[in-house]
Amino acid sequence: MKKNLTVIVFLTAFFSYAQEYSYREFGLNEGLPSLQVYDIHQDRNGILWFATDRGIANYNGYEIKSFGIQDGVLNNVVLDFHPQADGTVYCSTLDCNLFYFHEDFQGFFPYPFNSLLAKNLNTLQYVKSIYTSEDGSLHLGCEGILGALVISKNGKILQRPDKITDSSETENTYTVLEKKDNGAFFFYKTQTISPKKNSVHFKNKATLTKVDVIQLPGSKYYVYKSPFMVSVFDENIKLIREIKTEFEPISIKAIDENRFFIGYHFGGAKIVDLKNNTTESFLENKSVTNFLIDHEGGYWFTTLHSGIWYTKEPKIKILKGELSNFPVNSLTKDDNGKIFAGTLSGKIFGIGPNTQCQMIYNTTHTRKAFVEFDKKTKNSYFFSNQDLFINKDFSAPIEFPIYTTKISEPQEQRIIFSLINGFSVYEKNSFKTIREFPFRIHDACFFKNDIFLGTPEGVYVVDEKNTVSDLKESNTLFSFRVDDIDYNEARNELYFATLGQGIVVYNKNNEKVFSIAKKDGLLSDVINEIYIENKDTIWVCTNSGLNRVILDEEGHFSITGLKSSNGLLNDGINDVEITNDTLWIASKKGLVYTQKQIFDQQNQAIPHFLKIDYIKVNDAKASPEQLTQLSYKESRLEIAFSDVSFKKGNEIIYHYFLEGLDKKWYRTTNRKVIFPLLPPGHYTFKVAVTDPNGSDSKKYLEIPIYISPPFWKNSWFIISLIFAIGIIIYLFFKTNVLSYNKDIIRELIRLIIKKIKNKESYYVFKESGKEIRIKTNTILYVQSAGNYIDLVTEKKIYTIRCKIGDFIATTPDPLEYIRIHRSYIVRIDKIETKSKTEITIRGEKLPVSNSFSSELEKVFF
User: Fold this and answer.
1) Cα separation of 261 and 244, whole Å?
2) Which distant-in-sequence residues (6+ apart) come within 8 Å of 733 by Cβ?
3) Could you report the per-residue pLDDT of 774-827, keeping only the tens digit for each?
4) By three-state DSSP, how is residue 406 classified?
5) 563-566-570-576 Cα dihedral, nearest 10 degrees
6) pTM of the entire structure?
7) Partners of 451 in the beta sheet?
């Protein structure tokens, strides 16, 4: 079958592409007030500040906020930031005014002696350098003036600039750099001024403008910028290097003891070392005014016409050129370190030294291409559009008619072709007969004479006798979908890339099977590809980034990861390859490369700037101090917090815990927590920050909270209330009961005691020489019979030698009885009916005499 394709045979040269970065651009749509940005500063709270020709803006990792004249900015054109040791940041404007803010931002404030600046500077002599001395005096170095302008904290001019003559301006001027404890201060002087201790002089080249000078930290080298070039001097101010360019340098900035940054007018920017080697270059053709490395290692660039540019991870570079237009599916390398990339559209590229790139095979079909290299035969295999090519001999395709899902890594000069209905083995320059299978095969791998198959239904094994075994019957870990299988010969282990269980490891030495999953530190349980670098290191391509897994002899492992929040193009990684120490990472958005050492830096601690943004009580703003004095009505709390991360942004995971209410820590990516109805009590709100990989920061914030109970729940109120009720009851009884009807007390006491003392009582007596005990609540009444009484109970009548008047004195619950007649005492709770002349108990009527009728009236049913 003839295919419609275009073959690109060897070209005489590779196409070369400059290194590029994954940038994020900040412009007007992102909230910047202007695309003309002059300076950048990161304060001690992590916030970035930008000076523009339309005011000031800051960025906290979530949103950009702009400030103008209405906010206290004196002039919309702000040229430079001048941070001081005490956290004050002076801002110099185009009209030679100063205003300032503190890094613990509370607003903008004008410099109180701007009138002195107006008297001593003209509109072209704007401030370039500021230093605050210990006595509070402000030292100003300005464009176009000789000497420093020094103003005391009380507004007295301590030193005025020198007058400029034509000769001093053109020939005899120097840039003076004074080294201070908290930085450096530079200004212009004439050669007649003797150098001071801790100061150095650089001869100017006929100008007092557009000059800058810095010292590289930890070294004795200085970098000097003039309008024409950048020069490097040693500690003796001896010129050792001149860096010439067709573009005008705008800014310089120290990186470390050996490198510095240069921004050019319409010439981009670069980082240069002391030997004039350009180690990195950025933003070709743009005018770069300044540069900053943030606390996470990200690079920030301000420009004159294009806003702000940011790259999360400058160590990760994008391979530009034609390949960047295609999603990369497969990678391999040959013995010369040349990289080959197969794309999802079937095209194949070769990548040589210095990231030179060439398309070596083109096709109009869109079936994905695979590339593999056999280290034993030194053969390169390319598979695209159902054709197999060996060693780039694209003129002689080996056709394979069945749709192929993947080709395996060569083993023992054999390659397994995974098919939609089975598999076939390519060996000795020919395909073996297709072995049909009821499932689609995603990948296959030889282990001795067995073939392990990864399918949507799990793992199967075909032995040399063509017997098929289902491995999930031996272990449920083999029941997950498998997309890739690799064999680590040095450890005698098989690795299975699963959908849902991470990596399944099968050690053939001890038949041990275990998984390495997200719970163990992988970025995802969905694995696309596994790459074995060496005996102890494997690379795991997941749907959420790339992991490196390092194993030891005991089966323990450590995991580090890289994802889009760290600078990758996206999180769906298809394949990796390694040449020397360069790691190539393939994804659906293209190909990037970086150094392997970037994974050693993933566990390095990054500073956190966790802070409380605001607190609301019943939807009204409140201070932390107010939270310790809340009333019971102030029970709705809203606490907002944030950490500054330009890489992670909304991926930051916060842990919070309300001590006194919660039993555990809670996780959230939200930046505020609401407690809608807190009961009165003492609490402590705690919040900590973690990164998406789950490693906790040791820094956390806590806020004490106290909500007082309502006054009627306070102990003083309850005690007072009980006391008041007691007095009222006492007065009531004294005036209304005790004084007029003392007999009612007895009945009330009887009822109270009966409720409190809910316990059975017994009456003990002798009858016919025997001691008898009966429950008193079974007694109905007592009838007198001379010196005897009849004790009538619910079941029996007892005759006892006892006078009726002595009975109540001998019973354990005397209050339960009442005398209604000379001959009768009845139990009160047995009375069914009563009147002034008789009562009824169990249907039996008993007489009530006139002398006892008043007592009966006091009985309450």
Assistant:
1) 14
2) 745
3) 888 899 999 998 888 888 998 888 888 888 888 888 888 888 888 989 899 998
4) strand
5) -60
6) 0.77
7) 446, 462
